[in-house]
Design a protein that fits this description.
The protein is an all-alpha fold and about 100 residues long. The chain has one domain (about 5-95): MazG-like (Helix Hairpins), CATH 1.10.287.1080. Helix content is about 80%, strand content about 0%. Helix 1 crosses helix 2 and helix 1 crosses helix 4 (about 60-80). The two termini are about 25 Å apart.
Amino acid sequence: MSEFTIFDLEEIVAHRVETASPDESWTAKLYAGGQKVAAKKLGEEALEAVIAAVSEDDENLAYEAADVIFHLAVVLKIAGVSFAEVVERIAIRLDR
């Protein structure tokens, strides 16, 4: 297994948003569409993850969870919220 982290994903999303055109990058296209487009896609992916979970389709659940996390990264980028902020909120909730 690789050492890839959520913070690596955040950097990749930022790089694609800053350097790629919407015609050549799904990430750039989603970002250019704005928060409503990106959030709608996040919701669609979340629903697919829910369906996989209740269907007990673990292989598809992992695939859909990856889509959820990717699309969440784009939504967070548009909002100017970092994964560090999200992790901080989780740590507070877990009293860490």
